[in-house]
Design goal:
The chain has 68 residues and is an alpha+beta fold. It contains 2 helices and 4 strands, in the order E-E-H-E-E-H.
Length: 68
Amino acid sequence: MVSEARGRIFRRTDGKYLIYVPVYLAEDSMFPFKDSDSIFVKVSFPLDGSKRLDITQWTEEDQQKRDS
């Protein structure tokens, strides 16, 4: 079982940012995002200055918070 791996965040020439997740991590049986080839995710970071990035599945509740 693999629960962590070294990935990358990089900027493409068109200005978009991509997050690379290694295939052996994404194909692990315990990887949390298995529903389809593409899903919406919530990407966030704490405001305390720590070097942390959280990625969770986007929910209807997240959409309602964003719309209000």
